[in-house]
Specification:
Number of domains: 1
Low-confidence stretches: 295-302
Strand content: under 5%
Number of strands: 0
Radius of gyration: 20 Å
Structural class: mainly alpha
């Protein structure tokens, strides 16, 4: 596969996350609690991905490697817990802008841990994305009184753990088959969620049956697909570009809130969506251009020798 195809895979993973806030808001409006929503998401998602793992390629893993993959799933579970908690104290447009800070945190991680400082092109791309996120979130038309410190804290924590998962998924046990690796990630996430926020309501069969449709969609879009897509694409695009590509979640969240929830989306928000998409394209083109330049330079050196 080519680099742009791996980039597209990561982009789709980000779009999956963008759809979550719509289904979460629908579940909240149906009367379900945050712990029930998160618990059903990971319960259904883990069941789905292990069913897929039964029919996919597997590799025999040692207990230390299994433990490492389970631990690597912790930030996946924490992201849902923190983000859904922020949705309890902030409206969706504000909560997602704090989650969206993973865009620059990802480049910071790459700089600190991989010793790869961001290029000028990447900095410009991130700047466009942040400006676009401000417009797309609708924060300009929201009073400061609607912002709570608790909401900011939960939102920033979700950005940190989301970045951590993106970073980990691109570096841990690279030779493990994708579905098997993702299944262990999600299992670790489910254990984390069940320990920190026990969904006791799911023990009641009527509640479980009622929330099952929401859990299915949330599990598919938030637990099953992103880990698989990130596991496939991240090693080839890197966490820096990966975080830029996964920023597709914000415009998707805005578009779905308009179509599904019939929420008003202003012209400034649509402008923000366009800016974000432009930032994603700019970041991707910059990386592709750099790789082509390096490849042509190496070919020239080989020809000269």
């Amino acid at each position: 596969m080519k680099t742009w195809q791996y980039a597209l895979i990561v982009l789709i993973g980000g779009c999956c996350y963008g759809a979550l806030s719509t289904f979460v808001k629908l579940a909240y409006s149906a009367g379900f609690t945050s712990s029930e929503v998160t618990g059903s998401q990971f319960l259904m998602g883990t069941l789905l991905i292990w069913i897929a793992a039964l029919f996919s390629k597997k590799k025999k893993l040692t207990l230390p490697k299994i433990g490492k993959l389970l631990i690597s799933g912790i930030p996946l579970g924490l992201t849902s817990l923190f983000y859904y908690q922020s949705l309890q104290s902030l409206n969706a447009s504000l909560a997602i802008i704090f989650l969206f800070q993973f865009v620059w945190i990802g480049s910071l991680f790459e700089w600190v841990f991989n010793k790869k400082p961001p290029t000028l092109g990447k900095i410009v791309s991130i700047g466009i994305l942040i400006i676009g996120s401000i417009f797309a979130s609708g924060i300009i038309g929201v009073g400061l009184e609607d912002i709570t410190w608790q909401g900011i804290g939960w939102g920033m924590l979700s950005a940190l753990t989301y970045t951590t998962f993106i970073f980990v998924s691109s570096s841990v046990e690279k030779d493990t088959p994708v579905v098997q690796k993702s299944a262990l990630f999600t299992t670790g996430g489910m254990i984390t969620v069940f320990i920190l926020s026990p969904p006791t309501g799911l023990l009641q069969l009527p509640v479980l049956m009622e929330i099952a449709p929401y859990g299915f969609y949330l599990g598919l879009l938030g637990v099953v697909l992103p880990p698989i897509l990130f596991t496939i694409g991240m090693p080839h695009v890197g966490p820096g570009l990966g975080t830029i590509l996964t920023s597709s979640e914000l415009p998707i969240a805005v578009i779905l809130s308009s179509i599904v929830l019939s929420e008003h989306v202003s012209m400034s928000q649509w402008l923000g969506v366009v800016l974000i998409l432009g930032g994603i394209v700019a970041g991707n083109l910059k990386i592709s251009h750099t790789k082509k330049k390096k490849k042509s330079t190496s070919l020239e050196l080989e020809s000269a020798s």
